[in-house]
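Hi support team,

I've been running sequence recovery on a batch of backbones for a student project. Most finish fine, but this one hangs at about 90% for roughly twenty minutes before it completes. I'm not sure whether the input is malformed or the queue is just slow. I've pasted the structure tokens below so you can try to reproduce it. Let me know if you need the job ID as well.

Thanks,
M.K.
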């Protein structure tokens, strides 16, 4: 967070509310930046401003549509989450951001090569855990040993986005890798810690991103693959294997199924397979001449 925002009262209020809702630090910083800029414009406390002032501020901004979108999101957070007010679309109409072209999802062969190219064993197991369970990095770092249900093949996610608790899958192969990862496998403690003991320093959240970058360079993969990309690959590959969108929404912890749909990126070779096996005309049963009926309407 920029130094000039740290001592602002609105920053402390936003941080407290974001912690209560389970939002990430990046989201908190974005909201604090938007509301601090709003306060500078209106010259008063944002907690006492009204939506007419917010609407006038958005109209006065000379910035890109994406920046305007982020400023509006911060205002919606102020009125809806911090002041428990209804947001009037007449004053704060929705703004659609200019979204970049969706990145292609890596196929299983690329994921396998990428994970094998990670040199640090603990970081490799952490990335394998992200891909196998579909958890966010922050959620995975908060998982404790007692949250694993090896018999049921599931993991309890206590610190989900928005403060929601859910369960995701834990494949048997992943459970074996986790047992090798833990130096002292006991019934308590963090699953991922710096020394693998479940105690002491927390596993650094940026290690996975750096390890994936180095592995991608070793494998010669051009498409950017981040730790969050493993979550998209989890959703896409399960959907290609027949898992429905509603089940994926629950596993990923999405409040809206539209968010889950945005995670699915069908690969080109998969479209060819669907076109070959999904030929509905060829699959129609052959009818005998006496069975054929032609109906004319009108």
């Amino acid at each position: 967070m920029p130094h000039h925002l740290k001592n602002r009262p609105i920053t402390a209020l936003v941080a407290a509310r974001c912690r209560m809702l389970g939002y990430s630090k990046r989201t908190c910083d974005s909201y604090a930046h938007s509301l601090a800029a709003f306060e500078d414009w209106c010259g008063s406390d944002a907690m006492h401003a009204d939506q007419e002032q917010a609407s006038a501020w958005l109209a006065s901004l000379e910035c890109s549509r994406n920046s305007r979108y982020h400023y509006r999101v911060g205002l919606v957070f102020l009125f809806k989450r911090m002041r428990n007010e209804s947001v009037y679309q007449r004053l704060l109409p929705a703004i659609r951001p200019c979204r970049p072209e969706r990145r292609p999802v890596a196929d299983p062969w690329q994921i396998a090569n990428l994970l094998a190219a990670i040199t640090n064993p603990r970081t490799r197991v952490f990335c394998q855990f992200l891909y196998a369970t579909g958890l966010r990095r922050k959620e995975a770092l908060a998982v404790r040993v007692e949250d694993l249900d090896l018999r049921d093949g599931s993991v309890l996610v206590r610190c989900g986005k928005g403060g929601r608790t859910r369960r995701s899958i834990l494949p048997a192969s992943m459970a074996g890798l986790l047992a090798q990862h833990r130096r002292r496998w006991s019934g308590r403690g963090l699953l991922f810690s710096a020394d693998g003991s479940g105690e002491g320093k927390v596993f650094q959240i940026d290690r996975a991103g750096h390890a994936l970058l180095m592995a991608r360079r070793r494998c010669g993969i051009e498409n950017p693959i981040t730790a969050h990309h493993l979550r998209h690959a989890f959703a896409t590959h399960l959907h290609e294997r027949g898992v429905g969108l509603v089940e994926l929404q629950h596993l990923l912890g999405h409040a809206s199924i539209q968010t889950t749909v945005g995670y699915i990126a069908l690969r080109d070779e998969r479209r060819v397979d669907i076109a070959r096996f999904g030929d509905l005309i060829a699959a129609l049963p052959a009818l005998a001449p006496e069975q054929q009926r032609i109906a004319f309407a009108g």
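--
Follow-up from support: It reproduced on our side and the slowdown came from queue contention, not your input. Residues 25-42 form the longest helix (18 residues). No action needed from you.
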